[in-house]
Design a protein that fits this description.
Length: about 210
């Protein structure tokens, strides 16, 4: 066992992200439910153009919208590799989506993520996978934002982490008298980003496209 493994034992499966799932995904039951929904809307499930709708909807939900339930955020991020650099790392514009548990419709947008390495560096693709593992669930944008920042501390051993998500909430855009261009912005800071104002300022400058002074 390496020195790092001795200090950081294997991660326990993550159970505190999003709305918890008490059972496994049931493909057959899901397709039956879609057909029942179509019938409740007055549409015959076997009507022209609708023959494979239940399967298509099931595949989309199982593989993408709720695919994060099959991913452990710790495993998605991985252990990274040892490195003593301490400079801020920022990844802008990571595509995100989740499913609103109130209306069962998706929200989508982008996440801007930063972390201060605490002896480990992590691949950029790994951080995007972490975002997917946390976001592709029944969850709220506010929860997702906080969970991403906290996961970089807990699983990535970062000294600090920050996350901003800007998203379109379909349940909001479909509301009455909406213009259709509303955006929701949420932010979360953890570790040194909570206590050091200049780090938050540098992060906000970086994600806005302007150079920090």
């Amino acid at each position: 066992m390496s020195h790092f493994d001795e200090q950081h034992p294997p991660h326990a499966p993550c159970t505190g992200v999003g709305i918890p799932r008490s059972g496994s995904f049931d493909p057959a039951a899901f397709e039956r439910a879609v057909n029942d929904l179509l019938a409740a809307c007055g549409i015959a499930p076997d009507a022209t153009h609708m023959g494979r709708t239940a399967t298509r909807v099931r595949e989309l939900w199982q593989r993408r919208l709720l695919g994060g339930y099959e991913l452990d955020p710790a495993e998605a991020l991985g252990d990274g590799f040892p490195d003593e650099r301490s400079d801020m790392v920022v990844i802008r514009g990571i595509a995100v989506h989740g499913v609103c548990p109130h209306h069962l419709v998706p929200f989508r947008g982008v996440a801007h993520v930063a972390y201060l390495p605490g002896g480990r560096l992590h691949g950029f693709g790994r951080i995007a996978r972490l975002v997917d593992a946390i976001g592709h669930r029944f969850t709220y944008q506010e929860w997702m934002t906080r969970d991403i920042a906290d996961a970089l501390l807990q699983h990535g051993h970062a000294r600090g982490a920050a996350c901003i998500i800007e998203a379109e909430q379909l349940c909001l855009l479909l509301g009455e008298d909406r213009r259709g261009d509303e955006r929701v912005v949420t932010q979360a800071f953890a570790g040194e980003f909570e206590t050091r104002e200049h780090l938050r300022s540098e992060f906000l400058h970086a994600v806005s496209g302007r150079s920090a002074r």
